[in-house]
Amino acid sequence: MRRRLLALMCVTGSLVSGCGLLSDGQERTTVTVWLMKDSASREFLQRFTEDFERDHEDLELDIRIQEWTGIVEKVRTALEADSGDGPDVIEVGNTQVPLYADGGRLVDLTLESMRDWDKDEWLPGLAQPGRDGNKQYGIPWYAANRVVIYRKDLFAQAGIARPPKTRDEWLADTGKLNSGDRQGIYLAGQDWYTLSGFIWDEGGDLAREKDHTWEGTLDTPAALRGMDFYRRLQALGKGPVDADEEHPPQAGVFAGGEVAQIIAVPGLAQSIVRQNPGLKDKLGFFPVPGRTAGRPGAVFTGGSDLVVAGNTDDQFAATAVVGALTGAEWDTELARTMNYVPNKTTLAEAVAGEEGAAAMAAGAAHGRATPHSPQWADVEADNPIKEYMTRVLGGADPATEARRASRKITEALAPNVG
Predict the structure, then answer these.
(1) Of the candidates 284, 322, 2, which has an alpha carbon nearest to the alpha carbon of residue 138?
(2) What is the pTM of this model?
(3) Which of 50, 97, 119, 373 is the most exposed place for a label (fewest CB within 10 A)?
(4) Cα separation of 282 and 398, whole Å?
(5) Coil, helix or strand at residue 13
(6) 220-247 in b/e burial notation, b at 16+ Cβ within 10 A?
(7) pLDDT of 216-241, one tens digit each?
C-alpha cells in the first residue's frame, strides 16, 4: 500500500483508481488489487470502486488487471517483494491457493471468515482449496462449473419429456438419442475434469494424503467405478478417445448439428450459437445427474478466491476490500453481471432466473476441487490421468492402467520420496 497526496500526479496504469485527500486534508491510503482479465466487467469494477470509496473515505482502490498467462510466477515474485511494493489483494484460481500459502506468504483470514463472513455457507469447491490445515487463506469469490448443455428439440423428438435426474436415467436417455448420424453425447476421451466428478460420486478421489504424503488413488474400487461410468457414457457418441474437449473444440462439434449433449460451462452456449445461429432457442441446461434423484452429481468447481498478501503494510484495509468484494451485495451483483455462481449456497437464488447459471449453482453445491497439494500443478503438466483414460477407452485393462497412472501421480506429488 502507498500513501500519497492529491498534489502529486496520480499515475497508476490501473483499470479504475482514485486520487484524493480526506476532507481534513490528510492523505488517503491506496489499496492495490490484482484481478484477472475478464473476471469482472469494467462497469462492475467502476461501480464497486465508487461504492467502496464512498463507504471508506480514508481508502482508495488501485485495481490492476492481470493476464492468466505467466501469473503464477508473477504472483510468487510479488509475494516475495519488500513490503509496500506489490499488490495487497490478489485474485487467484481456487486451486492455486496452496502454491502461494506455502511459506507463510499469505495473511491468515480464519478469524474474519468465522466471525464476519459466514464461512460455513461457502461453496466447498472454493473454500476447501483456500485452507491449509485449520487456517483459511483464500476467500471464495465466484464459481463456475460444468453442466449438461442439450438440444431441447432432439430430446423432444426422442420422446424425452424432461432432463434426467439420475445417472441411470441419463444413460438410458443418451442411448435413445444416440441413433444414426446423431450422437447421444459428445464426450472426448480425455475430459478428466468430468471423470473426476464421477469418481467423487462413487466415493473415490484422484489422490489422497496419508501421514503427510500424497499418493494417487485411481486404482481404488470407487475410482474404478467412476471410470466405468465414464466409459459407458462416452461410448454413446463419437468423441475421440485420444484427445480432450478442446481438440477439437467441442463447441464447434456441437454447433455442427448432430450432437444432442455436451458437458461444459454454460457460457459455451454463446460460442455454439455464434457458430450456428439456428440453435439460438434450442439449447437447454441441466446439472450433471447424480447417483440418486435428490442430489446432482459432483463436479469440479472452478473459479477464484481472493487472498491478502503477507507483505501488505495495511492488513486491515486489504481485508476490508476482500470483505466487500466477497460480501453478499457485491458477490450477488457479480454473479448476475457475469453469469457466475455466487460464493455461498445461500445466494443461489440470485441466479435462479437464468437456466444455465441455476444448473451450475445446483452442481456447485456439491462441487469439489483437485487435491490440495502444492505439487498438483506438476501432475497436470504431464497429465497421467489423460493417458489412463485413453488406454481404458481403447480396451486396456482398467485396473492395470489405474495402477500405472496412480504411481505416476504419486511420483509427481512426492518427488523427494524414495
Answers:
(1) 322
(2) 0.79
(3) 50
(4) 38
(5) coil
(6) beebbbbbebbbebbbbbbbbbeebbee
(7) 999 999 999 999 999 999 999 999 99
